Amino acid sequence: MGCGVSVFMKSFYRLAAVVCLMTAAVLIGANIGIRAGGAGAEGRMYRVEALRLAGKIRRGGYESLTLESCQYVYRVSRCVQPGEQDVLQAFLEETDSDFLVQSIGGVLYRFDYHTGTGADRGRAALYMNLALAAMALLNGVLLIYIWKHILKPFEKLRDIPYELSRGRLAASLPEYKSRYFGRFVWGVDLLREYMEEQKKRETELMRAQKTLVLSVSHDIKTPLSAMKLYAKMIVRHMYTDTAQLEGIAGSIDAKADEIGEFVSQMAKSCSEDFPGMEVVQGQFYLSQLVQKTAAYYEKKLELLRTRFQVGAYSDLLLRGDFDRSVEVLQNLMENAIKYGDGGRIALSFAQEEGCALVTVANSGNTLPQAELLYIFDSFWRGSNAGSSAGSGLGLYICRQLMHRMGGDIFAKVQNGEMCVTVVFAM
Question: Using CB atoms within 10 A of its CB, is residue 335 exposed (0-12), middle (13-18) or buried (19+)?
Fold first, then answer.
């Protein structure tokens, strides 16, 4: 287990390292880009300003020129004697600032400018670095949050299903206030308690049934011994009088009834109180039951190429245990898939005498009409079961659950289809 934990966390650490390296690469690349590309962008801007001013000189003359709206060009000079070499040289070397020379109407004009590559570019780089640093900080905080609130709790919970599968049910689960795992832990802890309770109930039931079998087998010995004694007496012709023989026959019949009563008690004990038959009475809407059932079987039946139909219904408020009701419908759907011909399965709905009726019908019924009386008996399987796996308890449990919820269940064959109807109280 320790090795699995180590591999799991190493994967997260590798992911965190990749995120950090990518953030650093973006930061370095952005700085290089702003330094390399800043001057070119600003150069284009001062050229645009110089050309715009040159156009103004052509249209209105040098005297009408103003630099109030200029950001880069701060002075425009005119060479008054461009033909003399000394004067031209002095014009071009008057200052050591950056400048651009344009010839307009045969006269040279000098446009002095500054690119702003110092303070402006520095401010841009500062803002960019601050933004990228904030992004890197947020990434770091996010990774720490994921590790602390998701991965670390999950690391402690990942072995719980394995422990439950091994039957280690005694220890309660650690509580987490995390909104990501709080409900999950609560649900798993409820499952653990349920499994533990079921295990205790099964043990108690097995003990009770074993005690009953031993008790009944002991009680059967007395009438059985008496019957054997009567039989020996008859075989040896110890009683020849008709009245005496009739009396012995009556005694044998009484002892047989006594044995039959013991057997009935044992059979009843073995068929009742199956583990997991508890119901919690409540209320739920029919739409909840239908939607949960349909959502589960729509995709499954689509893969099986079985047509699935859900009829129209009113959203009634039903009484009973919602989870147990879902269990009943799922059991009926599984039977329809197993014993139908795969052509069609339909859910239909009706109301009768203050009850809601939900019917699961499947095409291709193969169960004889005479066997419908027995399909809800425990450990009974129809002649159409063939080699299909099953214990003969599914429909029996459905009936027991529905009776405990104040409802009922019945079956019929109609138009060549097997129809099982569940009756819910409202």
Answer: buried
Ordered DSSP codes for 149-182: IIIHHHHHHTTHHHHHHTT--SSPPPP---TTTH
Residue 158 and residue 261: Cα distance in Å, rounded? 53
Quickly list H helices, 175-241.
Answer: 182-235
User: pLDDT tens track of the chain, all 426 residues?
Assistant: 444 444 556 666 777 777 778 877 777 776 676 665 554 545 467 788 888 888 888 888 888 788 888 888 888 888 766 555 555 666 666 666 678 888 888 888 888 887 755 555 566 667 777 777 888 788 788 878 787 777 777 776 666 776 676 666 555 555 555 556 666 667 777 777 777 777 777 777 777 767 767 666 666 777 777 777 778 777 777 767 777 777 778 878 777 877 777 777 666 665 555 555 678 899 999 999 999 888 888 888 888 899 999 999 999 999 999 989 998 998 899 888 888 888 999 999 999 988 999 999 999 876 777 778 788 876 666 665 655 555 567 788 889 899 999 999 999 888 888 899 999 998
**Distance between CA atoms of residues 73 and 43, nearest Å:** 11
Q: Which of 160, 164, 161, 163 is nearest to 174 (CA)?
A: 160
Q: How far is CA 394 from CA 80, 328, 331, 390, 399, in A?
A: 111, 9, 7, 8, 9
Q: What share of the chain is helix, strand, coil (3-state, %, to 5)?
A: 60, 15, 25
CB 275 within 8 A of CB 205: yes
Structure tokens at 1: 């287990």
List 412's β-bridge partners, or say none: 419
Phi, psi for residue 43 in degrees, rounded to 5: -60, -40
Please check whether residue 283 is in contact with residue 321, taking contact to mean a CB–CB distance below 8 angstroms: no
Please name the residues in contact with 40: beta carbons below 8 A apart, sequence gap of 6 or more.
none
> At 46, which amino acid appears?
Y
For residue 327, the Cα-to-chain-centroid distance in whole angstroms is 19
Longest CA–CA span in the chain (Å) reads 169
- Phi, psi of 392, deg, nearest 5: 80, 20
> Residues 249, 221: contact at Cβ < 8 Å?
no
Q: Which two tokens stand for residue 308?
A: 């699935």
Please give the model's pTM, rounded to 2 decimal places.
0.47
User: Which amino acid, 212?
Assistant: L
For 248-354, strand residue ranges (E) read 282-285, 307-310, 317-320, 344-352
Give the bridge partners for 310, in sequence order: 347
